[in-house]
Amino acid sequence: MTASKTGKLYIIGAGYAGQNLAKEIRQKGVFGEVVAFLDDNPEKIGRKIGKIPVLGPIRDVARLLRLHPADEAIIAIPSASREYLEEIYRILKDAGFEKIRILPGISQIIEGDAHLIQTRSIDPQDLLGRTPVTVNLKQSLSYLRGKRVLVTGAGGSIGSELCRQLLSGGAARLYLFGHGENSIYQIDKELKILQEEGVGEKASIVPIIGDLKDRDYMNYILAHVRADVVFHTAAYKHVPMMEENPVAAIENNLFGTDNLINAAKKTGVKRFVHITTDKAVEPVSVYGASKYFCERLVLDAAGKNAPGGVNFMVVRFGNVLGSRGSIMPLFQKQIERGGPVTVTHPEMRRYFMTIPEACSLVLKAGGVGEPGNLYLLDMGEPVRITDLAEQMIQFYGLESGKDIAIEYVGLRPGERLQEKLWWDHETPCPTPFDRILKVESPGNAACNIDEVMEALRPICRFDPNHPETYRNAELLRELLMNKYV
Prior knowledge:
- The chain is α/β, with parallel strands linked by helices.
- Helices cover about 35% and strands about 20% of the residues.
- The model has no long low-confidence stretch (mean pLDDT about 90).
- It has 15 helices and 22 strands.
């Protein structure tokens, strides 16, 4: 929270979340003064809550406010729809608010227990896309209470959000595994600050720096931490980058996952949730092929697993709004420097979901999913990337074509106009759980993953009997695209 001590604070929403924020601001006494709640509920308008007046309707009141540059609005309506949030945002901007913060969605606010530390500056992802499904985290995470939970790729976009939500699960220990020192340092620091400010429960947080490609180390570290549950999000993910470094993609994603699976089997892990992508469906990129093989590897391990062993499952979904290296942060940077905004093709479409919603559903699937199954998150309808670019330009109060140009640059290697969420031989079936589908597939549709691993191993690991195959990218592509996918 960075509000001025002298600024006036207006909390949008006089519900439990807004009241909690007002109480915390008053207790700390260093973030300014809450002068009013703004709300559209006629039953609340005209009342006082903790001596703070509730004013409304929001549209009418906002026009009457005389703002100081230090004044700030905090939107505290975690259950608000995307359409309502966008309406409120426009009202506040038109009223002259320069500083607008927001609480995260309802899935991250447990029973109205909102905290000031959770607020952040509003950005385009809060207003774009569909309204996320409401997931009762406390109920969904009950299977993790008292458990030791390890998240690979904990410093990444998906991994770090999983960790934030896992704070509310009552886990005994939360292990943050990753090979990037700085990203693990950042999420470790953030989680501990959140705990200090009263967010979640008091799980012990343990950062671990390591490399999935090191088989001996993975065996050692899983035996040492004795994890009960593993969420495997770590992967090299950038499609054009992996097209230029194909061996690294297979080495890290496929063989790293194999190391983790084997270590999990040996060390008493009870539940293993593997995160995958729509790019694994009929892959046209090395990254997509690597993730397809990872799906097969995990499901194959589930098929070979003895009763009472690891509950292996796979959760597949499409793009997430705002992940590192994705188009949204790129568009933001391009808009902020005056454009142009670069789009690959006028008809490029992608499935999108917010990171918090995807993580909430992953955590729920991890609890309700059955061993050996592949689950698909319902992504809704695909979004035209040009439309997304235009909406982001509008968010900044600008007009596409007039203030900011959109430039089409063509498809890059490994890209296609539209992704698929399932293969032709797969059938997504409803489950009792909103936006979680179970993917049915005939057994003969799967590749022979043992054969794939045997063929790819000498390319990724030096074999003195076949030195010509080591790091041979041309041979790798031939195997991936002509034989196995």
